[in-house]
Design goal:
- The protein is an alpha+beta fold.
- About 35% of the residues lie in helices and about 10% in strands.
- Strand 1 and strand 2 form a beta hairpin.
- The radius of gyration is 19 Å and the shape is globular.
């Protein structure tokens, strides 16, 4: 689990988690997408193949169905794990030692989930055109990490799929997609709608030139 200023990214552990990813997605809060790493080459990627991002307190408070399912799945997968059902999510706003208020729990909630499908072929065509280099900062994983970083990169939709409001449209891998490193990908999505690549380049340039906080308050 990685805590950032405005969101939390959670990786799911277990190489068999992909087998139940569709079931997990059904339980996710509205607006939370269970995503798969672009590549599954290293031990870390194979053991933690899926992740999701929580951006609001409401989303974090709605994670109980997911965590209950994962706890039950873990209990079945790892015999003798008696404490699995006690491992639940705590909102980032809750301090670890905070006193819990007594309240009723267990009411059933029906959740409607939006899932935006992605085509792996579009990703491959985008990388074939632009290379596995970040379109914002130019970072190359193969230069930094050698062979294990070769070909690794995120692919960013210049128009977010969420903005399509569920209406599918044909994606042009050259016109509509760009390769970006995970850091720049996160920064592009720090606002809604996301920053453009040129806007993020300008923010980085301003920081280097003036050392000022260019992120809007």
């Amino acid at each position: 689990m990685y805590h950032y200023k405005y969101h939390v990214k959670v990786y799911l552990y277990g190489k068999y988690i992909l087998d139940v990813s569709h079931e997990i997605q059904k339980l996710m809060p509205p607006g939370v997408l269970l995503e798969t790493r672009p590549t599954l080459r290293t031990n870390a990627e194979i053991s933690m193949p899926c992740f999701f991002v929580l951006r609001t307190e409401e989303q974090s408070r709605s994670m109980e169905p997911v965590l209950r399912y994962l706890s039950e799945y873990r209990s079945k997968s790892f015999a003798g794990s008696e404490i699995a059902a006690d491992n639940y999510w705590h909102s980032p706003s809750e301090s670890e030692g905070a006193e819990a208020n007594a309240a009723e729990e267990g009411n059933r909630t029906d959740i409607l989930v939006n899932k935006y499908e992605r085509d792996r072929k579009n990703r491959e065509l985008c990388i074939r055109k632009y290379g596995a280099l970040c379109s914002v900062c130019g970072f190359d994983f193969s230069v930094a990490y050698g062979e294990i970083g070769r070909g690794y990169i995120h692919v960013h939709h210049l128009t977010s799929l969420a903005a399509l409001k569920g209406k599918a449209r044909k994606i042009d891998p050259v016109r509509d997609l760009r390769p970006v490193c995970p850091n720049c990908h996160e920064m592009l999505h720090r606002c809604d709608p996301p920053y453009t690549i040129d806007q993020l380049k300008e923010i980085i340039a301003n920081e280097k030139a003036y050392g000022q906080k260019s992120f809007p308050v």
